[in-house]
Amino acid sequence: MYQTTYHRASSIDEAVRLLSEAEDAKLVAGGQTLIPTMKQRLAAPSDLIDLRHIPELKGITVSGNSVRIGAGTPHAQVADSQEIRAVCPAFCELAGVIGDPHVRHMGTIGGSIANNDPAADYPAAMLGLKGTIHTSKRDVSADDFFVGLFETALEADEIITAVSFTAPQKAGYAKFRNPASRYAMTGVFVAQHGDGVRVAVTGAGENGVFRATELEARLAGSFDEAALQGATVPSSGLISDIHASAEYRANLIVVMAKRALAAANG
Amino acid sequence: MGIEGIGARVARKEDKRFITGRGRYVEDMVVPGMKYGVFVRSPHAHAKIRSIDLSAAQEMPGVIGIYTGPELKADGIGNLICGWMIHSKDGSPMNMGQWSPLATDTVRYVGDAVAIVVAETRGQARDAADAVVVEYEELPAVTNVVEALKDGAPQLHPEAKGNLIFDWEIGDSSATDEALSQAVHITKMHIVNNRLVPNAMEPRAALGVYDMAEDHYTLWTTSQNPHVARLVISAFYNVAPENKLRVIAPDVGGGFGSKIFIYPEEVVCLWASRKSGVPVKWTADRTEAFLCDAHGRDHVTEVQMGFDADNRMVGLKVDTIANFGAYMSLFSSSVPTYLYATLLSGQYAIPAIHCNVRAVYTNTAPVDAYRGAGRPEATYLLERTVETAARELGVSPAELRRKNFVRTFPYQTPVIMNYDTGDYEASLNAAMQAAQWDTFPQRRDEARARGKLRGIGMSCYIEACGIAPSQAVGSLGAGVGLWESAEVRVNAVGTIEVLTGSHSHGQGHETTFAQLVAGRLGIPIEQVSIVHGDTDKVQMGMGTYGSRSGAVGMSALLKAMEKVEAKAKKIAAHQLEADENDIVIENGEVKVAGTDRTLPWAQVALAAYTAHNLPAGMEPGLKETAFYDPQNFTFPAGCYIAEVEIDPDTGKTEVVQFVAADDFGVIINPMIVEGQVHGGIAQGIGQALLEGCHYDATSGQLITASFMDYTMPRADDLPSFQISHQTTPCTTNPLGIKGCGEAGAIGSPPAIINAITDAIGNNNLTMPATPNVVWKLLHASV
Ligand SMILES: Cc1cc2nc3c(=O)[nH]c(=O)nc-3n(C[C@H](O)[C@H](O)[C@H](O)COP(=O)(O)OP(=O)(O)OC[C@H]3O[C@@H](n4cnc5c(N)ncnc54)[C@H](O)[C@@H]3O)c2cc1C
Question: Where does the FAD-binding PCMH-type domain start and stop, copy by copy (chain A) (predicted)?
């Protein structure tokens, strides 16, 4: 790790100010992605601004079908939240299969979404749920937020404060883990909304999370596994690496979509 | 032999410190004035070094010194060597290229060391290492061993034309060809044994300390064999003569072979300590471990196995290409030759065997012994071929094996080894029974109803442990003898220190060696301490690898104990006025057999040191040393059966049952042996399903350079193992021990792969059988 200067922010405003003042600052939340990257000397921020002591970033509120989760909420807390489970159990299931217990107790939803790792789980849920990302400056829809590999709509001096979504009628998540990293090699989040179906895919796309529109079309009439019988998705645009070819990922998208549907309907 | 003697499940004495985090590893060592070393490493797989500019780095804060290859050469530090001479079949010696501990003009793999920076802190050393400017002229690289042999392939070393290190053979080529020409059936296989990265939990580390006043060096290092390290560093690398070099290997967190060898870093830390005047500590980070630890396996092999009309094996022909990486590591040449081809008879009576091995340089990390070393490669090809033959011949794989088992001992194979004893059928029967072999079809049908493909596969392995008779290995090219030593020091109060040349880095010697002593004397195990891993304390010894510590190290301990006991009996006979032949030692007493005339053990020990009343002419003291040179290898063997279920939609394999039935000879501590088997099987399943080391074919970059991409087995990848033992005591060592450290890693990969190919009905499978690989085969046949 290179030398860096640590700051502990106690409010969002203070964090924004520190961010704009420093030469090349980075926010640190759970540190589960940023710290290993710094240790490997792949990131060298001049300043680290710790968001973990900002009360405004914490906590879960559910009122009716509306769910709002503070950016600083760790995955374990989401996985264990009875309020969220009551309206959207798939979201808790997804949080519960991120990494391992250590990671889930440190890593945060804001950090995960800001990082937009192409194999991360939360982006699939946010896209599938038509979620909103709230920042220190504005509200951004998930559709506009996830731009590309590790790329988001966030500006340099912008901090995610919370995410929110309206619970759908039904939702399910199925994840096929990368055998080594155990991130998603392909993860599919399906959701049935009042006005249609969404199928969001993570771990497979060369540009990160995306919607499998072929599958959404098939499911529009019937939100059921059977509707995907014989379905295929094109392998173009999918990641090919030592773990999985694009063709194999294309297969996994359909298989995981079916399993997510089974979970949603089960 | 009592509750703490041989055969007892004694809890491991060393575990308290390991489990409570109080182990003392090289990285825990702190000596006055100690500073930190960080290596500048090649980012290229193959390049010429045009220039090295240290000026900016030297100005960095905290930098004490930066040292490079040419300076090392100028100081007379020698090249790293391979200590086992292999001759090609044309009689020429192996073509060993030069391996300078710090590269001088060429780098040959990603991670090749170019310079060391010594600085006040590790961070400063790393910052300065980043600031060293090395100008490289990139050269084409080759990482695949088959490609490296082709015309026009990039050439690594001028000494090895065509990248060929040796072209060696064993067995009778024409007799084998003749046997195959008569065969009624020949099974042919193309077998790839995947490259593995060892990944011991503790990364390698070295702390070199030069004492100017004494002109003396101390090296703290992560070694499985500190005496061999001292010998090689002094005799070949010219750092210091042996009497001026102390090597200490304290607690070592796993080796699996990768810590046998002397690496550049140890030599450079010693030399850098003299250059800089400060003690220099280097500890590998995980990336360095991936890049620079000696890797394992990486063979490509063609096999032909011939059968007569009665399904008896008549001949076996094997042609192997072995990847050696960029340099010849210390024992690299022995692995794909004498530790591999000599085991190709397996458990079978095969009248004619021939094996040809070509050893080849590539732009990858050096390859050397890794858990099993050669024997997993032999077992994998044999057991896949036998299983395939059974399918082709339409007979049961168990019956085909049974028909061909060696049944009379000793058995002389056509490939040097002479098996002393064994009962292969006993393990086969035990394994089949535990696995409920006969009812497998029901389980397969039941799985099919659930949409799963279920398969069963077996493997009958043999391996050679207890390496090895010194004269024999000497005649085969070994540069060292492979005996072991032990010293038993009885203190005046009767407590005992055992100084052993074996080295424990997870095996539990502090417990098992103490069990032998405590059991023989009938004294509590707490009164016996095991000392190892320090060349200043312990007499010369050869260290731990090849499951040799029980068979060889404990045999040496037994010999030393016998000398101690003989002297103690003389003292007791003298004091009890009895004939020494009537004296026995039991339950902590030295006594006249069948009488109540006894002396407590402690009193005899005290008598030896007070020397007030010893037999005439006897020297005072009670301390004996023994060296034991084995007569033969030992031959653990067994049968493993795996059952798997495959999800046809994803290709994911789940190991649903794993049975191991092993013959390890006499067992000292069943709990420790089970732990060794569990760990070995975990590694074997890792090789079969998960672990694959990948280099980019053109750039030579290591793609699997972290746990994000290299899949280590985790607990939830493994089933609960069912283990049993069928014991035929080894006849060539006094304790009857065969060894158990590697069996799990040797026997399990073919059992798993045979089970998967059974399930999917496609034999074209390569390891690791990842979900993608299996899925592709499933859908290839559609
Ligand atoms: C072993 C391991 C396994 C893992 N497995 C998985 C997995 O299976 N699935 C998965 O999805 N993830 C996985 N992760 C990643 C984990 O979920 C991380 O916690 C997450 O990606 C980042 O969250 P964090 O809070 O740790 O962020 P940090 O590491 O602290 O920060 C990550 C990035 O986000 C930025 N950031 C953080 N908070 C904010 C904010 N409020 N506003 C703006 N920017 C912000 C930081 O500046 C930084 O660039 C794994 C991580 C590890 C170490």
Answer: 1-170
Q: What is the 3-state secondary structure (H, E, C) of B90-102?
A: CCCECCCCCCCCC
Report the C-alpha gap between B133 and B114 in whole angstroms: 11
**Tokens encoding A15:** 């964090």
Query: Residues A212-255: pLDDT tens digits?
Result: 999 999 999 999 999 999 999 999 999 999 999 999 999 999 99
How many residues does this entry show for chain B? Answer: 782
By Cβ distance, the residue of A40, A243, A248 closest to B776 is A248
C-beta separation of B733 from B555 below 8 A: yes
Are B300 and B358 contacting, i.e. CB atoms less than 8 angstroms apart? no
As a whole number, mean pLDDT of residues B595-599 equals 96
Q: Collect all residues of chain A within an 8 Å Cβ-Cβ radius of residue B287.
A: 40
**What is the Cα–Cα distance from A10 to B709, expressed in whole angstroms?**
37
What's the pLDDT at B301? 98
A102 contacts chain B (CB < 8 A): no
The conformational region for residue B281 under phi > 0 = left, psi -120 to 50 = alpha, else beta, is beta
- CATH code for the structural domain at B31-139+201-254+259-292: 3.90.1170.50
Fold (topology level) of B15-20+483-628: Aldehyde Oxidoreductase; domain 4 (3.30.365)
ipTM at complex level: 0.96
Which parts of B308-379 are beta strand (E)? 313-325, 352-361
* Contact status of A244 with chain B (Cβ, < 8 Å): yes
The total domain count for chain A is 3
Closest Cα to atom 36 of ligand 1: A111
From chain B, pick out residues whose CB is under 8 angstroms from the CB of A179.
690, 711, 770-771
Residue B567 — φ and ψ, nearest 5°? -70, -40
The pLDDT tens digits for B371-419 are: 999 999 999 999 999 999 999 999 999 999 999 999 999 999 999 999 9
Least CB–CB distance from A179: residue in B127, B694, B770: B770
Closest residue in A to B127 (Cα) is A2
Q: Tens of pLDDT along B501-527?
A: 999 999 999 999 999 999 999 999 999
Residues of B with Cβ-Cβ distance to A1 under 8 angstroms = 123
- Asked if A158 and A186 sit in the same domain, the reply is no
CB contact under 8 A, A248 and B775: yes
The SS3 assignment for B339 reads coil
Distance CA B359, CA B547 (A): 25
Q: Which of the listed residues A28, A35, A47, A152 should we mutate to test ligand 1's pocket, taking the one with most ligand atoms within 8 A of CB?
A: A28
Distant-in-sequence, close-in-space partners of B359: CB < 8 Å, separation ≥ 6 = B86, B94, B164, B165, B166, B168, B322, B324, B332, B333, B336
Residues of B in contact with A32 (CB under 8 A): none
Q: Is A42 on the interface with B (CB under 8 A)?
A: no
Could you check whether B15-20+483-628 and B299-468+632-780 share the same CATH topology?
yes
Q: Which residue in chain B has the smallest CA separation from A184?
A: B708
Please indicate whether, in this complex, the C-beta atoms of B130 and A41 are within 8 angstroms of each other.
yes
Per the prediction, chain A carries an average pLDDT of 97
Ligand 1 geometric centre to CA of A109 (Å): 7
Of the residues A146, A166, A186, which one is the last residue of a structural domain? Answer: A166
In this structure, what DSSP letter does residue B370 have? -
Site to substitute for ligand 1 among A7, A112, A134, A146, most atoms within 8 A of C-beta? A112
Cβ-based neighbour number of residue B734 at 10 Å: 12
A198, A223 Cβ separation under 8 angstroms: no
**Counting runs of H as helices and runs of E as strands, what totals does chain B give?**
20, 28
The protein residue whose alpha carbon is closest to atom 11 in ligand 1 is A120
The domain limits of chain B are 15-20+483-628, 31-139+201-254+259-292, 299-468+632-780
CATH match of B299-468+632-780 with 2.30.42.10: no
What is d(CA B736, CA B516) in angstroms, rounded to the nearest whole number?
Answer: 13
- Strand-pair partners of A186: A176
